[in-house]
Recover the amino acids of this structure.
């Protein structure tokens, strides 16, 4: 940032050139940063080693619990099988994510402008949300068939509710003074929406999207359990019935990596769009 | 009750900035209808600086909102700059500064000052000074690109003042703008506000809780009483202009502040 114009006169007294103390401070900060990264990594490696040793020492049979090395070997051997099954799941999850969240954002916009609509439909949305995924998933498969549509619909539904609630709250998170300011400026309803409400809602929206990035993958996998020939969900069912535990574990690893990557993309977008947000920069 | 322009007297100021006649504001509430303002009569001349002083709930903020067309008067006559409050607002004659600066967190200081030019057709009415110059005027050159969370409370309020000036308003309404600031910053901003007032020639209505702020800034201090909100007394301030913070130590100022305190205690 530019030099502080108002306090420049006192700046020389505030910051003293003490390189040794400054270097010590920076070294401590770097140390703390490395600790934060290395400790969880070390703990994860330790747990994997314990697992590996336990499998060898107690001679646990592979179909009950495969050794980490066996899982890694399967990941390498069946890489193309895993990737070709990840593709449909990823498409379903991303399509469901886009459809579910778009619908939620649109409905939240309607709710904010039409109280009557909110009062009429919000309780219904809450009731639908209380139905477990496993309960409505078969209904959607019956309705939409065994193809991708049903899985996309399940992923969309599972994303929909958290985003609807957060987005409605976000669009309403405008302070009374900010509304008064816009009224003094004779702002039109669309100016109030785009220049005030939508921007205020972004922090709320992104916390919902981060939840949705993980749940949309769950929705797609649950949909595949009910009836599918390809996909991470189908592979999980298949590997379980064949007692192919290394493949089962490898499939789970691939699914988790995709989920984490999806989450990371949304988090990155959040940092790009919310540079101004205190909680992001602090 | 002394009034600036009593109705019985011949009209002294034919074209005042603000004229309120018997303005009453009532709100329905759970415990019954509340009278926020009761039969307010008030005339503020063009270029005047009126401070509104009174206890919480005396309707000071309500009065600003009636003048700026944010709230309708239940009865009575409101005339702002020779027309209705609504027309004055639509013409961008009114600038408003809130207690919390009410900056938009996703806009930089400069973008916040530019906001009035972007909405409601505000582009047609530009101040002679560009947004960047207005920021410099309030002492914030070098901070154009800073986001509100990077600014101190006093700096945020300076941005809010620059934003209120960007349409070159003839009337500036300020609702306890320095209420949340520390005393040193508040004193400094008080002096700067007086310089701005002298340079722009705008009429200012300034709500405050502070006796010293009210007496130091105002050409007149309007003392208000609560429940229902009504005018207690309008006290002319006879301090010389331009004013400096040191004037608050003069016997004249101390006497004025003591008088205001006595009236307030009776409210």
């Amino acid at each position: 940032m530019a030099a502080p114009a108002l306090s420049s006169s006192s700046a020389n007294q505030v910051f003293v050139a003490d390189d040794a103390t400054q270097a010590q401070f920076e070294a401590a900060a770097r140390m703390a940063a490395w600790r934060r990264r290395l400790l969880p990594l070390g703990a994860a490696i330790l747990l994997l080693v314990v697992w590996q040793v336990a499998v060898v020492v107690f001679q646990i049979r592979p179909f009950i619990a495969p050794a980490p090395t066996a899982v890694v070997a399967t990941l390498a051997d069946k890489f193309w099988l895993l990737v070709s099954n990840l593709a449909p799941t990823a498409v379903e999850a991303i399509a469901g994510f886009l459809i579910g969240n778009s619908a939620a954002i649109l409905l939240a916009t309607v709710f904010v402008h039409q109280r009557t609509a909110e009062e009429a439909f919000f309780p219904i949305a809450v009731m639908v949300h209380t139905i477990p995924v496993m309960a409505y998933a078969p209904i959607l498969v019956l309705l939409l068939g065994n193809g991708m549509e049903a899985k996309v619909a399940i992923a969309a539904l599972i994303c929909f509710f958290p985003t609807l609630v957060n987005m409605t709250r976000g669009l309403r998170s405008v302070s009374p003074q900010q509304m008064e300011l816009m009224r003094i400026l004779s702002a039109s309803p669309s100016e109030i929406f785009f220049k005030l409400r939508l921007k205020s809602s972004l922090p709320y929206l992104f916390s919902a999207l981060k939840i949705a990035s993980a749940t949309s993958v769950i929705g797609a996998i649950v949909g595949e359990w009910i009836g599918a020939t390809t996909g991470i969900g189908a592979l999980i069912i298949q590997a379980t019935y064949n007692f192919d535990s290394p493949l089962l574990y490898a499939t789970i690893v691939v699914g988790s990596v995709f989920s984490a990557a999806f989450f990371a993309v949304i988090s990155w977008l959040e940092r790009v769009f919310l540079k101004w947000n205190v909680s992001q920069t602090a | 009750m002394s009034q600036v322009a009593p109705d019985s007297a011949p009209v002294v100021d034919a074209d005042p900035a603000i004229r309120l006649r018997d303005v009453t504001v009532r709100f329905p509430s759970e415990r019954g209808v509340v009278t926020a303002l009761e039969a307010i009569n008030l005339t503020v001349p063009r270029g005047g600086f009126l401070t509104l002083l009174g206890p919480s709930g005396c309707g000071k903020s309500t009065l600003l909102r009636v003048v700026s067309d944010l709230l309708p008067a239940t009865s009575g006559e409101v005339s702002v700059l020779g027309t209705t409050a609504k027309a004055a607002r639509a013409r961008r004659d009114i600038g408003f500064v809130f207690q919390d600066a009410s900056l938009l967190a996703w806009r930089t200081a400069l973008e916040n000052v530019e906001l009035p030019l972007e909405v409601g057709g505000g582009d047609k009415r530009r101040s002679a000074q560009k947004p960047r110059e207005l920021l410099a005027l309030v002492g914030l050159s070098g901070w154009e690109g800073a986001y509100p969370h990077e600014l101190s409370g006093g700096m945020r309020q300076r941005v809010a003042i620059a934003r209120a000036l960007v349409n070159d308003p003839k009337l500036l309404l300020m609702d306890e703008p320095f209420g949340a600031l520390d005393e040193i910053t508040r004193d400094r901003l008080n002096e700067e506000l007086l310089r701005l007032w002298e340079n722009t020639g705008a009429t200012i209505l300034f709500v405050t809780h502070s006796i010293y702020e009210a007496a130091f800034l105002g050409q007149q201090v309007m003392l208000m009483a609560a429940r229902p909100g009504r005018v207690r007394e309008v006290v002319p301030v006879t301090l010389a202009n331009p004013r400096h913070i040191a004037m608050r130590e003069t016997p004249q100022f101390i006497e004025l502040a003591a008088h205001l305190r006595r009236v307030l205690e009776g409210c």
Q: What stands out?
A: Helices of chain B lie at 60-67, 85-90, 109-118, 131-137, 153-165, 183-200, 211-217, 251-265. Residues 5-10 of chain B have pLDDT under 50 and may be disordered. The first helix of chain B runs from residue 60 to 67.
